[in-house]
Structure formats: C-alpha cells, structure tokens
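Quiz preparation item.
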C-alpha cells in the first residue's frame, strides 16, 4: 500500500514594510571559489545599495516569511524571507502573495484552460482554481527571496 504524504501548503507571515535607506555595502566582483580563500579586498569593484540590488520601491515593498514546501520548485523554502512589491500588476507566471477567501498564500499566478489559478511549484500540490464565488485579491508580486544559511532568524 503506498504511503500518503500530507504536507502543509505554503503560507506567509507578514513582517512589515521596508523603509528606504542609504546604506551601501562593498561589492566584490571576484567569484568566490569553493576551495582555498583569496584576499577579497583586492577585488573590490564598487559599493552597492541593497535597495538598488533588491529593487526596493519603498513604501510599496514589504517582507513576508514563507512557511511550507509548496513553492520549492521556485527556490522558495520554509523560513525564507520574500521581498514583495505591491506597486506592480501581477501577470501570469509571477509568484504572488494573494488572499483566497481570506487565507494568505504564496503561489504562481496562472491559468488552467481559461480559468485563473494559483499554482504550486511542487508536484505534490494540485492547482487551486479561482472560481467566480471566491474572494480573491493579489497583495503583491514576489521580487526575490532571501535565505539564511546559519539558522532561522
């Protein structure tokens, strides 16, 4: 008898809006080898703003924390921070933060036949069709995700 796997869909925790800042960080153009270290100071190319790098359009950008595994095909994992822009219109193919019948989710916006759908990027989850009676609202487009490699914050 096959084992049935039941997993949680990917949901989000809202952390709040991002504020514009004038902080710049050093950017080293040197590709970091996975072997022996190299003195990176010799490769400093410029200073770069995280606002610019992450295309933060304050006050239209906010952070959410992802929970679950339904978007792993997009590289979004449990605990990742998502940078969300609510100033752009979502188009099919975008990863979005949306509310369907009051439940916030992160999914890919798409169509199945001619019916709009919220699509997971994990084959364990079926698409959720957006039907005429559903209360549906897009809360923003995911611009990028940030992952901590030293435990969750």
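Solution:
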């Amino acid at each position: 008898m096959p084992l049935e796997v039941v997993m949680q869909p990917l949901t989000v925790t809202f952390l709040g809006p991002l504020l514009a800042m004038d902080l710049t960080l050093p950017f080293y153009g040197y590709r970091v080898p996975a072997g022996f270290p190299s003195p990176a100071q010799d490769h400093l190319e410029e200073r770069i703003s995280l606002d610019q790098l992450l295309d933060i359009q304050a006050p239209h950008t906010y952070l959410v924390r992802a929970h679950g595994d339904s978007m792993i095909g997009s590289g979004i994992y449990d605990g990742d921070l998502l940078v969300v822009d609510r100033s752009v219109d979502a188009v099919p193919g975008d990863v979005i933060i949306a509310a369907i019948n009051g439940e916030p989710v992160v999914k890919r916006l798409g169509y199945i036949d001619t019916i709009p759908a919220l699509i997971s990027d994990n084959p364990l989850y079926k698409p959720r069709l957006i039907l005429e009676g559903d209360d549906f609202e897009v809360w923003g487009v995911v611009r990028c995700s940030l992952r901590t490699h030293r435990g969750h914050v």
